[in-house]
Amino acid sequence: MARTVTSPTTSFTSSFLGGGTTSHTSTALPNPATNPDDPFYAFLAPPPDETPEQRAAREKKEADARKVNDEIDEMLKAERAALKKKKAVKVLLLGQSESGKSTTLKNFQLTYARKAWQEERSAWRAVVQLNLCRSTNLILDILTEEMAFEGALSTPSPGGLIANTPVPPTTSAPSSTGLHTPEIEELEQHSGGSYASPSYTTPNSPRTPRSPHSGGTTSVTTPGSPPGAPLPKLLFDDKHRLLKLRLGPLRRVQRDLEVRLGAGAEEPIPALAGAAMTEAAPFGGSASALAGPSSSAGALPAAMSTLGSSSAITGNVQANGSVTPYFVPPSRRGPQEFYVRSSTGWKAALERLRPAGSGRSSTEREREDAKNRSEREAEETTRVIAECREDIGALWNDEVVKTMLARRRLRLEEGGGFFLNDIDRIAVPNYEPSDDDIVRARLRTMGVQEYRFMFEKGMESGQEWLMYDVGGTRSLRAAWPPFFDDMNAIIFLAPISCFDEKLAEDRRVNRLEDSFLLWKAVCANKLLRKTMLILFLNKCDLLERKLNAGVEFKHYVPSFGGERKNDVASVTKYLKQKFRDMSKQHSPQPRSFFVHLTSVIDTKATAITLTAVREGILRDHLRARMF
Ligand SMILES: Nc1nc2c(ncn2[C@@H]2O[C@H](COP(=O)(O)OP(=O)(O)OP(=O)(O)O)[C@@H](O)[C@H]2O)c(=O)[nH]1
Ligand SMILES: [Mg+2]
Asked: Which positions are annotated as binding Mg(2+) (predicted)?
């Protein structure tokens, strides 16, 4: 007798595969209850002596199970649709140049996007190499200048490293670069900008520190000599002449790397970098320097409301050196504007080569040629640097050179992208940057770069995050406001170790003061009244080093007063309060104050901070969606 097999049991599939499986799984499988050859047939087929009541009961049970299954399917479908619709969390990183925005973003990438991080690793080699070349060439520049100066004064006397010499003219014309001899001034005039790379930490004055508030100078101080004493003569010899000669190829290498990396590799030119900071134009700079989207400035200061000028450049110079279109938020794109997602990051940027590699019209063949050329150039660069390893080491460790740099008060070690202490590891043919190298590498951000992160685990599964990293130099700040109106959160970086430094692009402005004004403007901005603001008081490691070295905070911030201790705890407490007060005073409506003391080159500590920050932002985001 043939068995009457009634309805196919989808519930079977659910329970067999662990429950909750979707119907497409169940229907895709052959139903064992209908196939007498199936090993499960005996378990699932109805008993041969089934009574009508039993059959009715069984069919009801099956129908109920089917219903439950269908409901689960519907729920899953709805969940998937909701996931697709989940609004991305948007976070904007703000702060002056060299405040640590890109470094913070790298930390996010390192913690939450390991795959992309690994893929980009080798692309960072060029940046680290450039940083190394710059430091070396900067020392060579100073060496050349000092040798010319000493040579002009007298012929070197034999014996001993140092002899007494009159104070060179640099002391009477202090500058924040630490480079201000007539030769340098001439070079600056020719190059149209600063001779020294502003990415190096330099105090307000090389040999004559002065308070940013008083504007006055103190007497010349140089390590080991009493204030006001004539500076000892630096005794250069053939070794230095030889080093200059042998390290000559590094200038070409630097130029090549700069061309390959593009404008992000260049430093701001003070004369072009925007107007002086005023209360009215905190995001100041020439708005026409960038082609921004149409103005959404609203209540923004006048300098910002000129955005959208058609005379401006219509692209950002990206890390690959090509001028790629200016990134414009999709909602604000004008008719003929197009944009490029920078989410592909540095790797893609570095792989592409100018001119053929980056051009939209370039053929596959041209791109291939460009790529090969790029690889050949990279090999050549690495070879030259490796050949210079010993000489770079000899230059950096030379006692006369050390004294020379100390006189200039040029603290290369404290600046971004300092790798001279790692020369034996980096100047080798098979160099691969470590995580730490990548985090410490310095490449200025031009325009606005968008990064995407997709969280895959836990409550954030499927949640997309968009992070925007902006250029912090004055002239690039005009590009910020168009991103203000739909951000969930802003991470604002204020580098607090910079209390004794001036802005590279405007030597009249103290860097801490600049951060204060920017913070005030961000807090006061009406478009941001509901945006969560998270403040990172960054570069605490450098702050500690500076205070321990005896630099007095109160000399630069008189309101700190003489009673407080000149230590990290007192200074950070004071600064926290100042920033908090500003947020309270200037925010259009009450807002919470979130602050973290950070050293974002410390990846372990930063990972912990970022977990707290991420959870805070997400909670706020979910709350906003609920109400
Ligand atoms: N010692 C120390 N160095 C830091 C810290 N944060 C950033 N840096 C270094 O400072 C340099 C500048 O940091 P970036 O993240 O490139 O600065 P940015 O704000 O993105 O600068 P722009 O792109 O010019 O706007 C980098 O070489 C970093 O490694 C910190 O907390 N401590
Ligand atoms: Mg940056």
From this structure: 445
Q: What residues contact residue 533 under an 8 Å CB cut-off, 6+ apart?
A: 489, 490, 492, 522, 523, 583, 591, 593, 594
Query: Cα(557)–Cα(579) distance, rounded to whole angstroms?
Result: 14
Pull the structure tokens for residue 43.
Answer: 């378990």
DSSP H or E run through 594: strand 594-597
Helix (H, G, I), strand (E, B) or coil at 537: strand
Dist. CA 425 → ligand 2 center (Å): 25
End of a domain among 85, 105, 136?
A: 85
User: For 154-285, where are the alpha helices, taking DSSP H only?
Assistant: 182-191, 238-246, 249-261
Mean pLDDT of 336-349: 38
- Whether residues 172 and 81 share a domain: the answer is no
56 and 164 share one domain: no
Q: Which of 601, 604, 606, 609 to mutate to test the pocket of ligand 1 (most atoms within 8 A of CB)?
A: 601
User: Does residue 470 lie in a domain region?
Assistant: no
**What is the domain range of residue 180?**
127-258+387-435
**Count of domains for the chain:** 2
Residue 258 to residues 33, 251, 326, Cα–Cα distance (Å): 71, 11, 20
247/152 same-domain check = yes
User: What's residue 290's pLDDT?
Assistant: 27
- Residue that wins the pLDDT comparison between 580 and 201: 580
Ordered alpha helix ranges (H), 86-160: 101-112, 114-120, 124-153
Residue positions forming the annotated binding site: 445, 538-541
Residue 554 in domain: no
Same domain for 182 and 236? yes
Which of 525, 624, 512 has the alpha carbon at shortest distance from 583?
525
User: Which pairs from 53-58 meet CB under 8 Å and 24+ separation?
Assistant: 55/6, 58/6
Mutational pocket test of ligand 1: of 93, 102, 106, the residue with most ligand atoms within 8 Å of the beta carbon: 102
Find the ligand nearest to 98 CA: 1
Neighbours of 3 (CB within 10 A): 14
Residue type at 280 in one-letter notation: A
- The Cα 98–Cα 450 span in angstroms is 18
What the block records as the tokens of 148 is 């010319």
Question: How far apart are alpha carbons 230 and 207 in whole angstroms?
Answer: 12
Q: What is the pLDDT of residues 271-280, one digit of tens each?
A: 333 333 444 3
- Single out the residue in 29, 54, 85 at which a domain terminates: 85
Q: Cα 148 to the chain's mean position, in Å?
A: 38
For the record, the structure tokens of 37 come out as: 């050859």
What is the per-residue pLDDT across 506-554, written as a single tens digit (0 to 9) for each?
889 999 999 999 999 999 999 999 999 999 999 999 999 999 999 999 9
Instruction: Quote the CA–CA distance of 549 and 555 in Å, as a whole number.
Output: 14
Please name the residue whose Cα sits nearest to atom 9 of ligand 1.
416
How many Å apart are CA 184 and CA 220, to the nearest integer? Answer: 20
- Asked whether residue 57 is assigned to any structural domain, the reply reads yes
Q: Please, what is the end-to-end C-alpha distance for the chain in angstroms? A: 64
Q: Could you give phi then psi for residue 234, rounded to 5 degrees?
A: -90, 130
Phi-psi region of 224 (alpha: psi -120 to 50; beta: other; left: phi over 0): left
ipTM of the complex: 0.99
3-state secondary structure of 536: strand
Same domain, 134 and 249: yes
Q: Are residues 18 and 167 in the same domain?
A: no
Same domain, 57 and 161: no
The answer to the question of residue 310 being in a domain is: no
Nearest Cα residue to atom 6 of ligand 1: 100
pLDDT digit string, tens, across residues 112-169? 888 888 888 888 999 999 999 999 999 999 999 999 887 766 554 444 444 444 444 3
